[in-house]
């Protein structure tokens, strides 16, 4: 079967499932959950170090997804809509746990510092690196570098100003750079 | 190995990652959704309860306000006809003090014309009786002046055309005549007794409403008030009279 037709079929299926799920059809909701839960748990895991807590945040997110499914307009991507809910839910969880701290500092950002490092690390290692970052750094870094949010969006969601968002990103990158260097050293020493 | 942009590499790797949730994750979520559904179903009942209580309160309030209105309006309905009559009587009383005196004089003349009454005491008592009932007489004069005029000219008119007071007067006159015929000598006590009895009957007749047969509270109150006024006035006059007499005696004794 043509892959393009497959995508259309999947979209049709998803739209039908969403319509059923809006009418509180538990089976349709279950199918949607099974389709998106693994990806969404991964998203929540970006922000929340503990997997059980990440799953709790994800379930809270899905609960809100099914409650507000009638407000979803078919204009955008359903996965993107769920993903935004998951991000907010994860941040909300961290706020409840009072993990978030932002050091307010305005720093001139130099864009050329971290992007040219020889690395070929695995996803588990990347997650470990991200986990070592302070919560404020981590959130801004993940939202900006992985989720693709703009600074003004991050500032709005986290209730901070754009300058803080930028400084947090800068610090996060700097810290990651240091850690990647260390990791490179270890791997290069290991290979030699 | 070729250098790559770290952030792009990280993004790519993380985007591809999926994490399988625990086996009971869906059950937990499903349970929450079921509970939410139950709560949603319960919500209308709560609202129904609240709405019912609000309606109940409104009903009670309207009931109370209605009863208040009835209480406020009731006296208006009951009083209106009588009050008009009462007002008429009052205005007649105030506006025609002179007429009252004239009526009294005329009545006196009527009594004088009646030659069957020789006893001046009886006449005096009859006169006081009229003074105690000026309102009735004046009302009678106003409402039916022709009748009174006829009465003045012919005191022997049939009883149907006379007021209750006049009937009583005629009754007393008839009784006095009868006593006189029997005993040939009518004492003051006899006349006093007859007059007091007639007075009580007239008062009772005025208090009882002819149509309903119920004692009129307003008239009763008016009677009491007028009695109180009169007694107070009498007391003042008596006090002035007594003090005047004592002063007079003192002056006379000093002169002596």
Please describe what this structure looks like.
- The complex is a heterodimer of chains A (192) and B (256).
- By secondary structure, chain A is mainly alpha-helical.
- Chain A has helices spanning 3-22, 26-47, 51-67, 78-96, 123-132, 135-146, 151-158, 162-191.
- Chain A folds into 2 domains: 3-96, Rna Polymerase Sigma Factor, Chain: A (Orthogonal Bundle), CATH 1.10.1740.10; 123-188, Orthogonal Bundle (Arc Repressor Mutant, subunit A), CATH 1.10.10.10.
- Helix content of chain A is 72%, strand content 0%.
- In chain A, helix 2 (26-47) packs across helix 3, helix 3 crosses helix 4 and helix 7 crosses helix 8 (162-191).
- The longest helix of chain A has 30 residues, at 162-191.
- The model of chain A is unreliable at 106-114 (pLDDT under 50).
- Chain B is mostly helical.
- In chain B, helix 3 (97-113) packs antiparallel against helix 4 (120-132) and helix 5 packs across helix 6.
- Chain A binds chain B through residues 24, 26, 29-30, 33-34, 37-39, 41-42, 45-46, 51, 54-55, 58-59, 62-63, 66-67, 114-123, 126-127, 130, 145-146, 176-177, 180, and chain B through 1-7, 9-11, 13-22, 25-26, 28-30, 32-33, 36-37.
- Chain B: The chain crosses the membrane at residues 45-64.
- Chain B: Residues 162-189 form a coiled coil.
- Chain B: This is Anti-sigma factor.
Helix-strand blueprint:
The complex is a heterodimer of chains A (192) and B (256).
Chain A: H1 3-22, H2 26-47, H3 51-67, H4 78-96, H5 123-132, H6 135-146, H7 151-158, H8 162-191
Chain B: H1 6-16, H2 25-95, H3 97-113, H4 120-132, H5 134-143, H6 145-153, H7 164-183, H8 188-207, H9 217-255
